[in-house]
Amino acid sequence: MDILDFPRETLGRKIGTLHPRPGKGSYHGNALFRQIHTLGKFEPETLPEFQGNPDLARRVREKFRFDLPPISGRQTDGDTFKFLLRLHDGLECESVVIPMARYKTLCVSSQVGCKMACRFCETAQMGFLRHLTAGEIVSQVLTARQVLGEPVANIVFMGMGEPLDNFDAVVDAIRILADKRGLAIPLTGITISTVGHIPGIERLAALASDRGPEGLWRIRLAVSLNAPDDTTRASIMPVNTLWPLAELKETLKRWPLENEADFIFAEYVLIEGVNDSSEHALALAEYLKDLRACVNLIPYNPRLDSPYARPGPEKVRAFFHALMGAGQTCRIRGTKGDGAMAACGQLGNRALSRKRPEKLEMA
Asked: Using the 8-state DSSP alphabet, how is residue 259 labeled?
């Protein structure tokens, strides 16, 4: 078992099964959790809590896997870079460190590949290989902070994969990342980006409205819309046939926004000649008018051999002004990392690819 897979309380229970005296698991688990997630060290035998019980340290060593996946590659474009981690089965996941004005963001992956089959996305060309474990998700953050020395303070689940298709592992990873005895990343600094996975949004909404210890109150949601009508959206995002826009909107209306500063991110990838007209902008504003949302306009980052193109700066600005003129809050996301295939929609290794199914099916 990977020691990184477990939230702190779960880790304590696991260690408790190895301890000869009942009730001691949480004591040792808390100490080990702090050592790993605040210092990046995997050395239970050096902790004072374990030094009086070397046999327990030995048992813990034998029970769990204590390591981070090795870095297998790195590509840099200016201050933005992506790094690859070689997983225990030989597959790889990709993460991107993105400098912002006042902090650094880490874009993490939740799957190897993706089954959503969005036509414009490089990850989709891989097909779906497998889910990442909670520990493999957390290892991306620990590697960025402890190995690469990057003080990332904001986490976005916008890398390879659909996070809500891997719900349980993603939620466990969030609990680990947010734990105040570990990395202590605030939930307001964690964003889950989805293609519009309605069952997952509903499950996440229940946690996002829960202020209790098991809740994820005020975690942030981003939804990839990319078109304001079903015909256009289905042509580039097959998932729209499962969860069309009207159903998605009704679900988003129920997303908890109790704080006045909170909103939903509406991600919109601008693709030349597909979804970038002023008519699309006005239709998008109409679709969002009953939602508290901020549109992130993302000029398309072409995948390899892409049939699509990025619209020019004038077209992007015209779309922005059309939205603003219609009363819709929006912003243009600056392009970062496209020179290293590290920008939004560019992650993935086709050498690992599997054939995509002709029909999208969800588990």
From this structure: S
- CA distances to 190, 249, 295, 301, 355 from 158, rounded to whole Å, are 11, 21, 16, 14, 22
Residue 156, Cβ density class (10 Å: 0-12 exposed, 13-18 middle, ≥19 buried):
buried
- Angle, CA of 124, 330 and 313, to the nearest 5°: 70
Which pair of structure tokens corresponds to residue 55? 């046999």
pLDDT in tens, 166-181: 999 999 999 999 999 9
Residue 342's pLDDT is: 60
On the CB side of 351, CA atoms within 13 Å amount to 4
Q: What is the pTM of this model?
A: 0.94
Classify domain 71-352 by CATH number: 3.20.20.70
**Is there a contact between 84 and 73 (Cβ–Cβ < 8 Å)?**
yes
Total length of the chain: 363
**DSSP-based three-state secondary structure for 189:** helix
d(CA 192, CA 170): 9
Take residue 201 and report the two structure tokens written for it: 């949004």
* C-alpha closest to that of 292 among 216, 191, 223, 233: 223
Kindly provide the residue ranges of all beta strands, DSSP E only, lying in 250-292, ordered along the sequence.
264-270
Residues forming beta bridges with residue 128, ordered by sequence position: 113
Q: How far is Cα 274 from Cα 252, in angstroms, rounded to an integer? A: 24
Q: Which residues of the chain have pLDDT under 50?
A: 357-358
Residue 344 annotated in active site? yes
Ordered by start, the domain boundaries in the chain are: 3-63, 71-352
One-letter-per-residue 3-state SS of 192-241: EEECCCHHHHHHHHHHHCCCCCCCCCCCEEEEECCCCCHHHHHHHCHHHH
- pLDDT for 191: 98
Query: pLDDT tens digits, residue range 244-255?
Result: 999 999 999 999
172 contacts: CB under 8 Å, gap ≥ 6: 5, 6, 7, 134
Query: Which is it for strands 190-194 and 152-157: parallel, antiparallel or unpaired?
Result: parallel
